[in-house]
Design a protein that fits this description.
Blueprint lengths: L21 E2 L8 E5 L3 E3 L8 E9 L4 E4 L8 E4 L4 E4 L4 E4 L4 E9 L2 E4 L10 E8 L6 E8 L12 E3 L6 E2 L7 E5 L13 E3 L3 E2 L4 E2 L6 E2 L5 E4 L4 E6 L7 E4 L12 E5 L5 E3 H7 L5 E9 L2 E6 L2 E3 L5 E2 L4 E6 L5 E4 L4 E2 L22 E8 L4 E8 L13 E2 L8 E7 L2 E8 L5 E10 L3 E11 L4 E7 L4 E4 L6 E5 L2 E13 L14 E6 L3 E6 L9 E7 L4 E8 L7 E5 L6 E9 L2 E9 L1
Parallel strand pairs: 2-4, 3-5, 4-6, 4-7, 5-8, 6-9, 7-9, 8-10, 9-11, 10-12, 33-36
Antiparallel strand pairs: 1-2, 12-21, 13-20, 14-19, 15-16, 15-20, 17-18, 22-30, 23-29, 24-28, 24-31, 25-26, 25-29, 26-27, 32-33, 32-38, 34-36, 35-36, 35-37, 37-42, 38-41, 39-40, 39-42, 43-44, 44-47, 45-46, 45-48, 48-49
Amino acid sequence: MKKLIHISAVLLFCTSQVFSQTGGSGTLANPYYGTVSTNTDWYPDSFIGGTIYVLNLTITSGATLSIRPGPYYGGTVKILSGYSLTIQSGCSVIINPGTGLTADEIYNSGTLVLESASNEMAAASLIHDIYDDNGGAGVVQIRHFLRGGQTPGGDYRWHYIASPIPNITVSTYNTQNLAQYIESLVTGSDNSIGWVAYDGYQYSTRTTLGNTFNTLTVGKGYNYYSSADAIVTYTGQINVGSRNSPVTCGTGYPDYQGYNLIGNPYAACLDWDVNWNLATPAFVNNAIYFTLNGAVASYVSGIGSEGGTGTIPPLQGFFVKTNPGAVSVPLRPGARVHNVEQLRYKKKSTAGNSATDTISFVRLKMRGSNDSTDLVVRFNKNATNAFDAKYDAYEFSKTSGDINIWTTFAGTDYSINGLPFPETGIEVPVGINLKLNGTFRLLLSEMKKLENYSILLKDSYTNQLINLRNGEYAEFTSSPGSITDRYVLVINKSATAVADISSSGRSFAIYSSPGKIINIRMVSDIPVTDKGTLTVYDMTGRKLYQQKNVDWHGPNDTKMVNMDARTSGLVLVEVLTGNIKVVEKVLLH
């Protein structure tokens, strides 16, 4: 029975290393060469730079060469330019998950296997240019582990997939739920109507159309679901050439039309930024979108949300957003890379939770008991308040995954929101969607190149203003549903360093009373020998009031500050005396 689509290995390390009948030491200065005639394991991550260098290499006498990840989980074998790998009949080379092989030329009369991990952490990676299978004698297999079933919130675990081997048939898969996305079917405000199964079954209408397919096209993405875990085996010659993946874009509903599911056509990662520079497609936005743990991750121009990176793993499908006039997206072999840190989008790589050092941004994270998600607000002098194809990524689906957050600005929802630097301050509403009951926490998980800005979260339900930069967070309990009117991310340019001030104890109680009066009461018997200073700032860091040379006379000594009647909302009150510093937020009515 078909399931409605929702936008969505334990490794045992052998310690022995055997390099049979090979010369050299595997370093760049002294590469391996010769023959492997007994079963041999190579662990490239134990070599300098995580790379084993090789000249001509032949696998012979029924032997198997296994390239394995060691304790550092990674590494590649590089056959130097001008040399080749030969796999004789009855012999094999196995590239294990988390490792890679680079070879200009491969001559295969035996078996070449690329594995993927049963915990979805990684897949094998292969970069090569010339392949000769000795008239069909050689076999290449790519084994693709795909997790089945549902998430804790009840989402079906769909996977965007792609085959780097031409003419893989539908019968290769163990499920009725193998679908393509047909952008041209979207003619209104429901983009789910584009999902159509291989037999023409349209998921949103539950009717059968004529849009069927029997084989997978290299460079195109597909969506896969199974009720149980599965290993899909692709057999055939791996594509190494350029591909132009066709795309379309309807008109009339720009928020829903223009999404095209394409796929990595190679057995290695595709560096999206390098590919973009090699062959920039016309009328196509920079951002890419893909499933990760049932949710949708995104990436654009150096930064990702929800674990997204710009290295598109092998066997991975991904969405691009086009505009009217788009024809195709070029995919070029010159953009192939090994990225053993992020060989599957199913893994939340730390690489996806970072950015290049030139990007100014804030990452807001929401955590539940079993899951987390995030959004990004980035700043660039060339960005605008409207959608920027170079800096923005849409919120592809608010309902994907068990928990989801996004920002809304000028009527558009974003997973990555690129904005110009605010001259004074800016407020960005945060949207939340939950499929589970629970207690959730909003916090600042990362910030770069915003030293002169305060990062605050306004809670419209409680009138609290939470200083995220100081390590504070918002915590709330909720049942399933959407929350779009509660939290606002407030980013202000600070006139002082007030955003970096932190409290050092509860030596003073600071509170307001009617009439715009701020009360500062000493609550502990502390030794105070120096005269103090009282300062009040607004939330942008602008100084509203200051009194110097304040004397304190022990517990319950109270000072009152009469603020201007025009002052309202939240202010920051700073008390400095001796070695005591206290900062509190006070709401003036």
